[in-house]
Write a structure and sequence with these properties.
- The complex is a heterotrimer.
- Chain A has 8 helices and 5 strands.
- The longest helix of chain A has 27 residues.
- In chain A, 43% of the residues lie in helices and 13% in strands.
- In chain A, strands 2-3-5 form a 3-stranded antiparallel beta sheet. In chain A, strands 1-4 form a two-stranded antiparallel sheet.
- By secondary structure, chain B is of the alpha+beta class.
- Chain B folds into 2 domains: 67 residues, no CATH class; 318 residues, Cytochrome-c3 Hydrogenase, chain B (Orthogonal Bundle), CATH 1.10.645.
- Helix content of chain B is 45%, strand content 12%.
- Chain C is an all-alpha fold.
- In chain C, strands 1-2 form a two-stranded antiparallel sheet.
- In chain C, strand 1 and strand 2 form a beta hairpin.
- In chain C, helix 5 runs antiparallel to helix 6 and helix 6 packs antiparallel against helix 8.
- Chain C is globular, with a radius of gyration of 21 Å.
- Classes of the chains: A alpha+beta, B alpha+beta, C mainly alpha.
- At the B-C interface, helix 4, helix 5, helix 7 and helix 14 of B face helix 9, helix 11 and helix 12 of C.
- Bound molecules: iron/sulfur cluster (SF4) (2 copies).
- One iron/sulfur cluster binds next to helix 2 of chain A.
Chain lengths: 254, 394, 351
């Protein structure tokens, strides 16, 4: 082929690049536009410290041994007079070295107490490799970024807890409908009966910004509880009270 | 006038790039020049990774080429002897980072066959689905990088555009973009998230359209043809001698594919099309790559039509132990045949896990292919004999 | 109108102004082309390109320049230090010198040489000496191979380039670049339809354009710097400011050869075939200056259009092989160019 004159193939390529140029770009301007990551994304590992029993399974199963756990035993005085004193593990240090971690997720999978979770958060690069070892406070803080797991694909077998729950609900519904047919003439009563599940459904809708109920918190601190426990309980108290208030409001509105 | 070339015994390959060259020095002696020794790599843009090729050059012609491997050796097989099977699955993701899912699948299959486990139907279908998406990802990467090595800078950006979409899809199911770690012995880590199958169906249509763009950009391009046709011809018998497999072997006209000849998972239930080439040159290899993307998309469509409901995992003891014995499992990885030879003494880690990786054999044929080629053609050959350096060295 | 606008009575002042104008244009125009390349390539590849440095990345190239200044200036231990240091300058200067004879608008030229075409083409091939110097002095095998390829390429493509230009000279009947532009304005097909030389010389234009791609080592003829084979050819060992000089030389080369193509084939500063420039007074500007500015804008527009085509090729085409390039040149382009001259000569004599 001495004379490679421009032929149709070359022109096709030119047309394609020109066409692409006239279309909007597909790239995103990263620091300005954050990517929308799916909930399963393996970004960073979060630790639900309250759940951890220091069983060491995660540290042992980690392929590159990048989880560091220190703990000590504490003797808990017996509740009742004469019972035996019990020992309990207290977590002193829980750290993951993300410079070593290979993001395999084995630790999360083996944890028998649901203390570890994946979060899609990924922006924790630093200038110093030492800062990549996240201590337990930081791992606890990641908990706030953990999303709810995605719904499973059609045809998937449901997880055991949900399947059990659904079976129970179905049973309850059957009983309820049985009650309806049995007391067909007592219509108002049946209506009230049916209102039960609906009300719970509504309750799930209620979303409350978590805050600390200061009064409860102060009271618990005064009772000598640790700050962590007090904070958690105060939060729970606040959410409970708030939900009750909203529910009452809705009902009065109906 | 004798037809002896400058250096006796260095006859050009018939049909090779030297054929019909304008200047051919004939006769003995007068113009004899010294060969130049050149190290391509270990850090060189064309060797994607840390492969080193030592070549002796006569002008621009390669007299001798020796691939030097081992710069990325990570002692993987030894490491596997000290890890349990779940950890091994996380590790095999990493030696060939472009075929992560297919690698973990091979290990899981080996363990399952030793344990005589019955893997749930749905899990097997999802495995086929994921393996094919992984294959598309892998081939897109090579389509892009091959163009880049020949100086066409656009295809690689287009390829990464598609890869990005597919990786996003894979991430929604597995949580990883490159290292999926989604297989488990006895099934999968968890089921797919809602909407995955619908998104897959949409993506196959997209990628098909985009695939035709690569055809416009490269396959039909006259310069591209001039650069790759009749370059790096690998005859079928030589390919078999070196144990070359995958698209590189298919380009020579041999349709050996483990998905067809020794089906695993549910490959026996789907229609697997294995495209083959005619001459085994670089252009054929590239065409096979594009055709394989289409073939994989067809398989994905079939999976989407057939995927049954059900569980994706079997109940296993806390610690998985393969019974005493040995097994060899063969899978068709994107780059060629992957082999997993597992010897177990009944403990929770293997006694020995030997892997046959396609890249290693593909690269072995390099000395043959590069001899008497031009330096520029070396790039066309390196780019079209598909290998990943991590997969060579392990 | 064959006088430069800057032909003042004071020779020294005129000289100073001319040099300042050339250097200014020489520093700015490549940046414009470079920016268009950044953005054009990016959009052809479904990207956005530079976006962060100032508005839509306009400040990217100046910022790059500052970065280059800050970089360590490395001279390899085995390099021939003097030659190594001088090479970027030798590659850079020819482009600047050619600018002296290229008319960018009516009255906008530094010197109207009688042998303008000859001068421009002769000087343009000097830059390859800079490349060879860099290649040889780097003491790197990759650089050396890049340099040898560059030299081979130049020899093969200088001929079609010169022959393409020669046909124009034949048709215009002058070697002065200003004269050629004006000859294009007077040219009529069959004595009626006004047209530039690009139509009667379509073949010549094509050859000239492709040959200038090869001369500039632009894709698809970028074998001398083929990054996947030879790392970066003769520039492999360069860092910092010296490397920046080479890059500047490349883009200045694009400007100069595009400008040459515009002047030779595309009617120079005339906006349309047979249409002149406005030359009335606007506010305090005399008509002459208005025409010069308008002409400059038209010329720049055409240069950018040609440069865009070069960028477009870069985005689309793979690279050829050195022996294929030689074959195309010697077996196709040079015979065609000679044929072109013969045809033009015959028409010239007959008409
Ligand atoms: S993700 Fe894997 S490597 Fe990282 S801490 Fe968990 S077990 Fe270890
Ligand atoms: S496995 Fe879970 S409970 Fe056990 S130490 Fe690790 S995080 Fe804590």
């Amino acid at each position: 082929m001495p004379a490679t004159l421009p032929q149709i193939g070359l022109l096709k390529g030119l047309a394609l690049t020109l066409k692409t140029m006239l279309k909007p770009a597909t790239t995103a301007q990263y620091p300005h536009v954050k990517p929308a990551l799916p909930p399963r994304s393996r970004g960073v590992i979060a630790l639900m410290e309250e759940n951890c029993t220091v069983c060491m399974l995660c540290a042992r199963e980690c392929p590159d041994w990048c989880i560091y756990i220190d703990s000590h035993k504490e003797v808990v005085p017996p509740k009742d007079e004469g019972a035996r004193a019990r020992t309990r593990n207290v977590l002193d240090r829980f750290a993951i070295d993300f410079a070593l971690c290979m993001y395999c997720g084995i630790c999360i999978e083996v944890c028998p107490f649901d203390a570890l979770f994946w979060s899609p958060e990924f922006e924790y690069s630093t200038y110093s490799i030492r800062e990549l070892t996240h201590e337990k406070e930081q791992l606890r803080a990641w908990m706030d970024t953990v999303p709810a797991p995605p719904e499973l694909e059609v045809g998937a077998e449901l997880p055991k807890e949900i399947a059990d729950g659904l079976a129970a609900a179905r049973k309850a519904a059957e009983q309820a409908s049985a009650a309806v047919t049995a007391a067909a003439d007592a219509a108002p009563a049946a209506a009230k009966e049916g209102a039960g599940p609906t009300a719970t459904a509504v309750e799930e809708d209620i979303h409350v910004e978590v805050q600390i109920d200061q009064a409860v918190f102060d009271q618990l601190i005064a009772e000598g509880k640790t700050e962590r426990v007090a904070r958690a309980k105060a939060k729970a108290a606040y959410v409970r009270a708030e939900k009750a208030r909203i529910r009452a409001e809705r009902e009065s509105g109906q | 006038m004798t037809d002896t070339l400058l250096r006796p015994g260095s006859g050009m390959l018939p049909g090779g790039p030297g054929e019909g060259m304008l200047v051919e020095v004939r006769g003995e002696g007068e113009l004899r020049t010294q060969d130049m020794n050149l190290n391509i790599g270990p850090q060189h843009p064309a060797t994607h990774g840390v492969l080193r090729v030592v070549i002796d050059l006569d002008g621009e012609k390669i007299v001798r080429a020796t691939p030097v491997i081992g710069y990325m050796h990570r002692g993987f097989e030894k490491l596997a002897e000290a890890r349990d099977y779940r950890q091994i699955i996380a590790l095999v993701n990493r030696h060939d980072w472009l075929s992560a899912f297919c690698n973990e699948l091979g290990v899981a299959l080996a363990v399952e066959r030793m344990m005589e486990l019955e893997v749930p139907d749905r899990a097997e279908w999802i495995r086929v689905l994921m393996a094919e998406w992984n294959r598309v990802l892998n081939h897109l990467m090579f389509v892009g990088s091959f163009g880049l090595e020949l100086g066409a800078i656009t295809p690689v950006f287009f390829a990464f555009r598609e890869r990005e979409d597919i990786q996003g899809l894979m991430e929604s199911a597995t949580g990883g973009r490159l290292h999926f770690t989604y297989t488990r012995v006895g099934g999968l880590k968890e089921d797919l998230p809602r909407g995955f199958l619908a998104a897959s169906a949409k993506m196959t249509r997209n990628v098909r359209v985009r695939n035709s763009e690569y055809r416009d950009l490269l396959e039909g391009n006259e310069i591209f043809k001039a650069r790759t046709r009749k370059v790096g011809i690998l005859p079928p018998d030589v390919a078999l001698d070196y144990g070359v497999s995958g698209p590189t072997l298919h380009a020579t006209g041999i349709a050996e594919d483990a998905r067809v000849t020794e089906p695993y998972c549910r490959y026996d239930k789907v229609n697997v099309h294995v495209p083959v080439g005619a001459t085994g040159d670089s252009y054929d290899r590239f065409q096979i790559l594009l055709a394989r993307i289409d073939a994989s998309l067809d398989i994905i469509d079939q999976v989407l039509d057939n995927i049954p409901p059900g569980p994706v995992n079997v109940k296993l003891p806390k610690i998985v132990k393969a019974p005493e014995g040995e097994i060899y499992v063969r899978t068709e990885n994107p780059l060629g045949q992957g082999g997993y030879y597992l010897v177990s003494d009944g403990k929770k880690n293997p006694w020995r896990l030997k892997m046959r990786t396609p890249s290693f054999n593909n690269i072995s044929a390099m000395s043959y292919l590069l001899k008497d080629q031009l330096l520029s053609d070396m790039i066309a050959i390196l780019g079209s004999v598909f290998f990943v350096v991590g997969d060579v060295d392990r | 109108m064959t006088e430069s606008l800057l032909a003042l009575d004071n020779v020294w002042l005129a000289l100073l102004l001319k040099v300042a104008a050339i250097v200014g244009f020489f520093l700015v125009a490549p940046l414009v082309i470079g920016y268009i390349e950044h953005k054009g390539l990016a959009h052809m590849q479904a990207r956005l390109g530079p976006m962060e440095a100032a508005f839509h990345g306009i400040g990217q190239l100046p910022a790059d320049g500052i970065k280059f200044i800050q970089k360590e200036d490395i001279i390899p231990a085995n390099a021939d230090k003097w030659v190594f240091s001088l090479a970027p300058g030798v590659a850079l200067v020819p482009a600047m010198v050619i600018l002296a004879v290229i008319p960018l608008g009516p009255g906008l030229w530094a010197e109207d040489l009688d042998t303008g075409v000859f001068f421009a083409l002769a000087v343009s091939s000097v830059s390859v000496i800079g490349i060879l110097m860099a290649a040889w002095s780097s003491a790197s095998k990759y650089s050396l191979m890049g340099g040898i390829r560059a030299a081979a390429q130049l020899i093969a493509y200088e001929l079609p380039l010169v022959l393409g230009a020669a046909a124009v000279v034949l048709q215009a009947g002058t070697m002065s670049l200003v004269g050629i532009v004006e000859a294009q304005n007077d040219f009529r097909i069959l004595g009626v339809v006004p047209m530039w030389f690009v139509l009667p010389q379509a073949l010549g234009f094509l050859l000239f354009f492709v040959a200038s791609l090869a001369e500039l080592s632009r894709p698809p003829f970028d074998m001398p710097i083929a990054d996947s084979e030879l790392i970066f050819g003769h520039m492999t060992e360069y860092t910092g400011l010296r490397y920046a000089f080479f890059m500047l030389a490349e883009y200045a080369g694009i400007v100069v050869l595009s400008a040459l193509a515009v002047v030779l084939f595309l009617g120079g500063w005339y906006p349309l075939p047979g249409v002149g420039l406005p030359s009335f007074d606007v506010l305090f500007l005399p008509g002459e200056v208005v025409a010069a500015l308008a002409g400059f804008a038209v010329t720049m527009g055409k240069i950018v259009a040609l440069a865009f085509v070069m960028i477009w090729f870069r985005a689309t085409f793979p690279r050829l092989r050195e022996d294929q390039l030689q074959r195309i040149s010697w077996l196709a382009f040079i015979p065609l160019a000679i044929l072109n001259i013969v045809v033009v000569a015959v028409f010239k004599v007959v008409a």
